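Reviewer comment 2.1 asked that we show a complete input and output for one of the modelled complexes. We chose the pyridoxal-5'-phosphate case, as it is the one discussed in the main text.
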Amino acid sequence: MFFMSQPLQFLLRADEMPAQWYNLNADFPEPLPPPLHPGTRQPVTPDLMTALFPESLVEQEMTPERHVEIPREVRDVYALYRPTPLLRAARLERALQTPAHIYYKYEGVSPGGSHKPNTAVPQAYYNKIAGTKRLATETGAGQWGASLAFACSVFGLECNIYMVKVSFNQKPYRKLLMQTYGATVHASPSQETEFGRKALAADPNCNGSLGMAISEAIEDTVKHPGTKYALGSVLNHVCLHQSIIGEEAIRQMELAGEEPDVIFGCAGGGSNFAGLAFPFVRRKIKEGKKTRIVAVEPASCPTLTEGELRYDFGDTAETTPLMMMYTLGHAFMPPSIHAGGLRYHGMAPMVSHCLKLGLIEAMAYPQLKVFKSAVLFARSEGIVPAPESSHAIAAAVDEAVRCREENRKRVIVIGLSGNGLLDLAAYDSYLSGHMHDTGNDNGD
Ligand SMILES: *Cc1c(COP(=O)(O)O)cnc(C)c1O
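Response of the prediction step:
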């Protein structure tokens, strides 16, 4: 028998939920390069963005304020699942025979099972009070679509979703979840937009990509009156909304009485990573803390570790503003790996800027190693982690093993961005031995 000699859960009371989001743009030692108009190459003006987003969100995108008040109505919806737990992974430590202390901040308790409602809820709220009737968006693995569909159902908005075709087919349960919340879901590329029809004419078997689905959602938005667009990652206001994860985690690590030495988060567009990391980055900048903060991405979509830092489009059709970010190029077609939420050619400009300034590090992990750690985590902690989150777990496991080999105690924090209960087909592929390091088990 293994008896726990220490507490495992570090919970905040409902009234200890942070009342403000944190904006790292207020504290960067060097300002973030602005997004540029693709035609003029001049910094974009707010009026260009208000075609797609309500003014309140455009203001948050550009705000120099360090803290932004979380509206009462948003806090009331957050209260369905926040504050989220921080847990000590004592059984994982024991399985690894490591002197390291491993903690994880778990966002899988939300409706939809990931961190994405943290921004879907405020985005739907600000749209609702601005008079928007309908939101259009894209989704990769479906977590964003499900989160936005949930948020739209709360605030009474219509929701029209373009879902990357490979995930639409691989992950039917997420599509059903979106439909259950009342959303309309199209496999992208679709017949709904000119961009989609062209892509299908060029390649009827096109698997789609996040960049393509974004192009469809933007076209849908500008062609339908009363419709606005919502993006689940990458943008500054999304990173802002996600900061509640790290603000809670700082308080919870204080409850645990430990200082993190290294933090691992997975990075697709960068939002869950930003959410956990940025409040800790603030402490590096302002308090001189030495915390290592590491973004972990898939080896088959290695944006931060192998991409270039330059201005690039957020979508395939070249309709978005140019953003200064690490990118594999907006035409990059990632292989159909199971961590669908990490298949994006670019990276949040704020996360990219952190890497450029040396405030964070980046690593890439291949799929099989990620699932090996995911299964170990499930068997020791009980939670089946999302394939995306399992990238952070894999890096944390390697760190814990190094601690064992060097006989050093380190305090490790994992950003567990979601659960994998709707990703069991990916686990099937791994457990049955059909998974490869690139591509899925359909041979692509
Ligand atoms: C969408 C998703 C990600 C990747 O998106 P980011 O913007 O990089 O956070 C990671 N984990 C989970 C569980 C997701 O749903």
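Residues 440-444 have pLDDT under 50 and may be disordered. We note this here for comparison with the apo prediction described in Section 3.2.
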